[in-house]
Write a structure and sequence with these properties.
Blueprint: H1 3-38, E1 40-41, E2 47-48, E3 59-64, H2 70-81, E4 85-88, H3 108-114, E5 134-144, E6 147-148, H4 151-158, E7 165-172, H5 180-187, E8 192-193, E9 197-200, H6 205-214
Parallel strand pairs: 3-4, 3-5, 5-7, 7-8, 7-9
Antiparallel strand pairs: 1-2, 5-6
Length: 216
């Protein structure tokens, strides 16, 4: 083999090595960029490659109104499962057991049901500390005559939900969620309102966990 042929072979080998190195560098860079885009920093600073769980998008707040403690129990368990904070909606004039006697046409809730002008229930406060820090807000309430208990409306109307994901949930003995979540959305100032969920008045822990696990 003459010197000219040997020189050509060396040049070909050198070009092949350069191309191979370039392709390897590009593949490594692409893989690194994909890993960066798919990972989300969790609250404890670790990297989680799943971006579906709301815990990865920011702080969670569970807001609730509870007339007989059923909704309160559910709200507390949801907040614990999601590592979220709690805020209770409390009327200035709190409801008594007599007020909640739905079978008595002269009870407070019956009068408020029959006269919508009485449903503007004043709350002790509508202000949530560090409200702007919450990306996801769950709002829980009992169902009163197929709608959310009206003290919840007061809270919703008083706050700005822009930039937040909002998930309603209710507790009831027999009624479904119905249009209660949609009606709250209609009076809300912004927010990305998702489909809500109905719990029985005393749901099991597994029912609550299943709801939490299904939140995206």
């Amino acid at each position: 083999m003459n010197k000219k042929s040997i020189g050509i072979i060396i040049i070909v080998i050198a070009i092949a090595c350069c191309i191979g190195g370039f392709m390897l560098l590009r593949n490594n860079r692409t893989e690194k960029e994909n890993n960066t885009n798919s990972s989300v920093t969790t609250n404890d600073g670790t990297q989680d490659k799943s971006d579906n769980n709301i815990n990865n998008t920011g702080k969670v707040l569970v807001v609730y109104f509870s007339a007989t403690n059923n909704t309160k129990i559910v709200a507390e368990k949801i907040a614990k499962n999601l590592n979220g904070d709690l805020f209770e909606i409390v009327p200035e004039d709190e409801y008594t057991s007599d007020d909640l006697n739905y079978s008595n046409s002269n009870s407070r809730v019956s009068k408020e049901h029959n006269d919508e002008t009485l449903r503007n229930v004043k709350l002790k406060t509508t202000t949530v500390d560090n409200w702007d820090s919450y990306d996801t807000v769950l709002i829980g309430y009992p169902i009163w005559w197929q709608v959310a208990a009206w003290p919840v409306n007061t809270f919703v109307e008083a706050n700005n939900f822009n930039g937040k994901t909002v998930i309603p949930f209710c507790t009831s003995v027999s009624s479904g969620l119905g249009q209660s979540g949609k009606l709250l959305e209609n009076v809300a100032n912004g927010g990305n309102w998702l489909e809500g969920h109905r719990f029985s008045s005393r749901p099991s822990d597994s029912d609550i966990k299943e709801f939490n696990d299904g939140i995206k």
